[in-house]
């Protein structure tokens, strides 16, 4: 190999290392801006694709566990759940559903609230679910943990 070729290879290697370092710095600066909420119009902030977020989905039945009668009328049940959610979280999504199950020969149905929570942790979800169990006199609240990717899209 000629001396010029060896020198060229060394220079290109150094340039490649510098470009890689610049890319790493750029990613870290972008992550810091995202973490600080600095999103410009036309940008979207997606969480690290290698570490999915967790979305919690709660299924809250509204029939009393002892009498199987509604604890609250549907509108009041939703308002009671919203009070608990606002106390524990900065936001939530609620869907109204009808739940049903069979026990022996009897078919039971109940008004059910399906609650979606993101950007939280299981301890906070358990705290809210404990309060729901007491308020709605439930045996339990079904909690699903779904791996997801969250994006706060700021528009174009």
Describe the structure in your own words.
With 156 residues, this protein is α+β, with helices and mostly antiparallel strands. It folds into two domains: 3-45, no CATH class; 53-151, Alpha-Beta Plaits. The chain contains three helices and six strands, in the order H-E-E-H-E-E-H-E-E. The chain has helices at 3-35, 74-88, 122-135, and strands at 44-46, 53-61, 93-103, 106-117, 142-148, 151-153. The strands form two sheets. A four-stranded antiparallel sheet has the order 3-4-2-5, covered by helices on one side. Strands 1-6 form a two-stranded antiparallel sheet. A hairpin with a 2-residue loop joins strand 3 and strand 4 (106-117). Helix 2 (74-88) runs antiparallel to helix 3. It starts with a helix and ends with a strand. The relative contact order is 0.20. The model is unreliable at 18-23 and 41-50 (pLDDT under 50).
């Amino acid at each position: 190999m000629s001396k010029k070729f060896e020198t060229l290879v060394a220079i290109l290697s150094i340039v490649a290392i510098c470009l890689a370092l610049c890319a790493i710095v750029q990613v870290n600066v972008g992550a810091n801006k995202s973490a600080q909420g600095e999103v410009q119009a036309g940008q979207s902030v997606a969480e690290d694709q290698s570490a999915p977020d967790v979305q919690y989905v709660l299924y809250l039945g509204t029939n009393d566990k002892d009498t199987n009668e509604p604890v609250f009328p549907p509108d009041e049940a939703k308002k009671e759940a919203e009070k608990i959610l606002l106390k524990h979280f900065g936001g939530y999504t609620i869907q109204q559903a009808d739940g049903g199950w069979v026990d022996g020969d009897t078919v039971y149905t109940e008004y059910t609230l399906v609650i979606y929570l993101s950007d939280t942790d299981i301890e906070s979800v358990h705290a809210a679910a404990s309060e729901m169990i007491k308020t709605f006199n439930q045996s339990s609240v079904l909690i699903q943990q779904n791996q997801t990717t969250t994006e706060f899209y700021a528009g174009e």
